[in-house]
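>> Question from a student workshop board

For tomorrow's exercise we were told to take the sequence and the ligand below, predict the bound structure, and bring the output to class. My setup keeps failing. Could a helper post the expected result so I can at least see what it should look like? The ligand is beta-D-galactopyranose.
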Amino acid sequence: MRPELGCCYYPEHWPEERWSVDAQMMAESGLSWVRIGEFAWSRLEPTPGDYQWEWLDRAIATLADAGLKIVLGTPTATPPRWMQKRYPDMFAVDRDGKARGFGSRRHYCFSHQGYRIACAEIVEKLAQRYAAHPAIQAWQTDNEYGCHDTVRSYSQSALTQFRIWLKARYQSIDQLNKAWGTVFWSMEYSSFDEIELPNLTVTEAAPCHELDFKRFSSDEVVSFNRLQTDILRRYTAASLIHNYMGRIVEFDHFAVGADLDVASWDAYPLGFLEDRSDYGEEWRARFVRQGDPDFQAFHHDLYRAVGRGRWWVMEQQPGPVNWAPFNPAPLDGMVRLWSLEAIAHGAEVVSYFRWRQLPFAQEQHHAGLLTPDGRAAQGLREAQQTAADIEALGTLEPAVAVVAILFDYESAWAWQTQPQGASFDYFRLVFEQYRALRRLGLSIDIVSPAQLGEQHYKLLLVPGLMSIDDARLERIEAAADVVLLGPRSGSRTEHFHIDLNQPQGFSASVECVESLRSSAGYAVGDGRLEHWFEHCNADEASVSLTSDSGAPVLLRSGSKYYLCGWPNEQLAEQILTALLELVGVPTKSLPGGLRCRDTATHRFWFNYDNRNLEYGDKRLNPAEVYIETL
Ligand code: GAL
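>> Workshop helper replied:
Here is what the output should look like for this input. Compare the format with yours to find the bug.
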């Protein structure tokens, strides 16, 4: 595969005379893809039923004439003002019961049946008009499901659909009462019509009520997206794509991805470091112009799995953004580094957001590849360098990873529902184990529970997986030579009851669990357990590591291990190094923010740090990429 570059363009924002200049510049800069249209509904249908295609016809023709391939977006993330007149109750309602309003974007409730009809209409009209156009080689559905906290809606439409969903799931109200444990606090129901959404309760709602609402909300995103893919498939064989976001876990991306051909995500490394990192001031200061050294890689690997091997970066940060608490400029070289890192992880396309900075509206401080007055910005220079790098690299094939980590959205919802400790976060738990593997120099696969067994690994990590029944345990065991489960894995049944068999497959039992504030961790040699600890009763023979105070930390049963707590960096590294040695996988000890990633033919080295780093005979400046042929 030969990776390609692209950008996001909004012809409706610029004078028509400029379009051909832009298209020419894109092509000359080495970009071959351009994404358009995803927010243009008010220009496509200014009043209901009055479709205005001519401007888009001309924009598409201009871009196509320059040899660009087009991703056409469906505009359903931005319903125009008239939609509110048609469906005054189409807005999502937040947890406090307040309806969201018009004036920005994503202002719809996934469960509103009328809005779904309107979406189906515009998608069908777009497909009828453009599916046959040879330049339209991919379609993007909507834009960033879940961004701006938009998955869960507590509206009347959501309530109606939730009751239908529950009836289908439980069949009888007795089953539901049993599953939810409603005998507790006299919460019993006598019919599905009595059930409300789990907001506005005085204190916690029943955890299974919460979890079912989260499952339902995710299913609503899946069916909303499917409505569009079903229509598009009738008209086109082009790739269908959605652009996911960073660290959004409120819907099951694997389930949405099953209806699409390619997964893509929007990579804003500096924005994410500022507004969704768990690490303190020192960490942020060190990586302020480079981004977290593992955050992008994690999502590249996650979305490669969501896309079943096919994935893109649909939006790559090209300079400072506008939306984080602080918006620094990347170090010179970082835009190229981020682009090459995506390519090393197997991205088919890296597309920059946006072509040109817009001198008006909400994102006027958001950099583009061009400045607001149309001159080349640093982002464009680095995109051009990346295009030259790609030319020099030729075709790239992915490496086969020997280690994998399991990621499961339902587990994220479970631990959001009952974290049991303020710092327990599923994403963070998985991410920290992933980071430990990366620091050991490994290329990693992420897999979903449904993908278990598609490839055999030397080592598989399964942190925090909510439910493990016998069948799932068998599949986990068969997926790798050695498996490391825990902490918290297999600790709930599907109905969110404590699973009395945890840890499954070990001659041990969990006596109690505790969550730990940072001052209350447990020392384990040079390392520490933090955030979470499970006190296990276990046969001495099955304990392979204990804390300094003698409590079991790592249990073993054959080739299966169970980690009883949340290890800090040193402890995670120590345990993983030992397990990797056991399965014969060589590790490296990478200094600071140095990371590497293999393709079948090359090893890419990335210096994310703010200082020079040395490893073996390599010496890398900050933001430097070193590419070795294997
Ligand atoms: C993304 C979004 C784009 C733009 C960008 C700014 O989340 O998809 O439309 O808003 O952020 O960084």
